[in-house]
Amino acid sequence: MRGHMDKLLLSAAAAADAGEVPVAAAIVNMYGQIIALAENRMKRDGNALQHAEMLAIQAAMAKTGQSRLDEYDLWVTLEPCTMCAGAIAHARIKRLYFAAYDEKSGAVESGVRFFDSPSCHHSPEIYGGIGASKSSALMQEFFAARR
Q: Which residues are catalytic, by number?
């Protein structure tokens, strides 16, 4: 299933080419199949809520007709922020796999550590650092080009 991260990194690079912060996310079913794939669309859509995770979760819910995704996993190229961690909890995602850690805005194993909060009603299994070096390099290249 590591191939999922390779596919996501290609999608994240496409987001960067479109001027978006290079983040991509996918919802994967219990058979290891990607059922929803999204990339950041905040700039293109003029909407700060259009994070890749949010879009992938919404697409998966629309595709499955379910309001909860408790048998699905989320793969993402960057540690989710607080907003996305909240959506992951509400959607009841089973497992979260992410690539690069985000010391500034991450909320899973960095920052507020959302899933460790006593007020968090659901915590997925968490696997961080998968393909971190490639994702981090993509982020660094993106922001270096804008300085």
A: 53
